[in-house]
Design brief:
Layout lengths: L1 H5 L5 H14 L2 H12 L6 H30 L5 H26 L4 H10 L1 H18 L3 H7 L1 H8 L2 H17 L5 H34 L4 H10 L3
Helix pairs in contact: 3-4, 4-5, 4-10, 4-11, 5-7, 6-7, 7-10, 8-9, 10-11, 11-12
The structure holds protoporphyrin IX containing FE (HEM).
Length: 233
């Protein structure tokens, strides 16, 4: 318990150090792939190996990013939110790599052939949809874009995450269902469902507090404000 309390407030410097460490750690899966490439350890089907590996990491980073807010609320480590943008960008980075491998090594940059494949195979259609939806989120992830869009509009746009992650899981499910390997997709579906449920419940809480606020009127700001602070909003 003391461990959690000690970590509940970290100095700016510590958070920055942690972010730098995470930045390096998140590159390790890519470094591993490159090393395996040089050592000739990518297996009998290197394209499949790289596609699957980058797909796996894209999904891990998407889930970790989605977990930041519920976790922050649960254990009250508010500084976690300062790692979220980088985690989200890493999810985008691994999806982009995953897509590039598919476009390059599977289709040799032939747009027509790739398009035919996207239309023909529903699991790829879903993957491309998730990737397409991630692009505006990556583009608007800078502080400048938050200012330009305004907090509310930015927040609405970034709620696309709640569509993108389930689409990623559906894509994964489809890949594995073809091979009758559903244990991992079931696990990921359960994790994502729990995270989304936590999100919905906290939104409901916020609405309830907003109603409380309007019912009590502006005169009672201190009481409602205290409740909001206690809820960590
Ligand atoms: C958010 C977007 C995406 C996520 C999270 C994702 C994730 C994954 C995962 C986890 C796998 C299975 C890896 C394994 O077998 O362990 C996979 C496989 C695959 N994905 Fe994606 N993917 C995404 C988008 C895309 C896109 C845009 C394309 C191509 C246009 C694509 C093409 C493929 C292909 C070809 C496979 C391999 C299927 C096989 O092994 O038969 N994915 N993806």
């Amino acid at each position: 318990m003391r461990f959690f309390t000690n970590l509940s407030s970290l100095s700016q410097r510590r958070v920055l150090q942690l972010r730098n460490l995470l930045f390096v750690l998140a590159l390790l899966p890519l470094a591993r792939l490159v090393a395996f490439g040089f050592l000739g350890r990518l297996g009998a089907n290197p394209i499949e190996f790289i596609t699957r590996n980058t797909g796996d990491w894209a999904l891990y980073f998407l889930c970790i990013t989605l977990a930041v807010t519920p976790l922050r609320k649960l254990i009250r480590w508010n500084w976690l939110v300062r790692l979220r943008r980088m985690l989200g960008l890493y999810a985008f980075f691994y999806v982009a790599l995953h897509f590039t491998i598919f476009f390059w090594l599977d289709h040799f940059f032939d747009m027509q052939e790739m398009w035919a494949d996207i239309v023909k195979r529903p699991f790829i259609t879903v993957g491309v949809l998730a990737f397409a939806l991630l692009i505006p989120l990556a583009i608007t992830s800078t502080n400048g874009m938050v200012r330009r869009l305004g907090g509310k509009r930015w927040q609405w746009l970034h709620r696309l995450t709640y569509v993108i992650v389930p689409l990623g899981v559906l894509h994964f499910w489809w890949v594995k269902a073809g091979k009758n390997l559903l244990a991992q997709p079931i696990l990921f579906s359960a994790i994502v469902a729990l995270l989304l449920l936590a999100r919905v419940l906290s939104e409901k809480n916020r609405e309830r507090l907003a109603q409380l606020w309007s019912r009590r009127g502006a005169g009672n700001t201190e009481t409602t404000g205290t409740v909001l602070m206690k809820e960590g909003k």
